[in-house]
Amino acid sequence: MSTESSYYVPEQSKLPVLAALGMGLMAYGAGSWVQGGSALVLLAGAIVMVFTLYNWFSTVIHENMAGMNSAQLKRSYVWGMSWFIFSEVMFFACFFGALFYVRVLALPWLGGEGGHAGNDLLWEGFEPAWPLMTTPDMAVNGENAQFMGPEQHMSFPGWANLLGWLPLWNTIVLLSSSVTVHIAHTALKNSNRAKFNLWLGVTVLLGAIFIVLQIEEYIHAYQHMGLTLESGIYGTTFFMLTGFHGAHVTMGTIMLLIMFLRGLKGHFSPDDQFGFEAASWYWHFVDVVWVGLFIFVYVLA
After folding, report:
1. Environment class of 42 (CB within 10 Å of its CB; exposed 0-12, middle 13-18, buried 19+)
2. What class does CATH assign to 78-299?
3. What's the fold here for domain 1-69?
4. DSSP character for 147?
């Protein structure tokens, strides 16, 4: 039943309980893993979550295709996705804020500015400059320091070959994918399904290319630059910002892949396409975040 005045209420389901179980296992497993334990609990939680989400979204898609969703329910989907993206904005704002705090406030304080005890008193030889290549611990203890800085920083362009331009290549890839997903959206509004499938497929491919390029960048950073999660505050902020963004790109690529498969099955119409629109909103969001990362993490490094 679907009318303007009704709100479809699905039957009782065990899926929310399974989702809570999966997230709990993932949180506990992740905590155990980083402390030297096994990753099996984390993997088990991920499997439970994949199973739950697959069944949950399959149910939602079936209900919508059967015409069971009212206008009110569809509006709730729009608001739900809007608040989700807002929460993601706040998530990245925290990490950009941490980067700002370290670069603009903490390092000058460590260097003695603003009346704080500086390197002359505590860490002779410490240079409070960003990127932080020499940690205060290194300045005091040298090679015996617990927290070693990186051998090289990830500025743009930083390497002696074309791979050093990876941040720029990834920027071009993501900005291009914003264009292709917009073309796909326009095609769907114009009932051109073949064009929609083509350009959405190109978008998914560009997302996969970005992920592969970022993996290559991480391999080079770890193996040849001494830049790791343990290489001081610079390594930590670099991998937290770019790593979480990479995770979001991966999730966005999976979302668009699902929309592509749905498009091949004939789902969506010019008047009923919010599943795809929600994924495209999310994709534009991760593109904007990457532009900020490119500027503040690579160009202004």
Report:
1. buried
2. mainly alpha
3. Helix Hairpins (1.10.287)
4. S
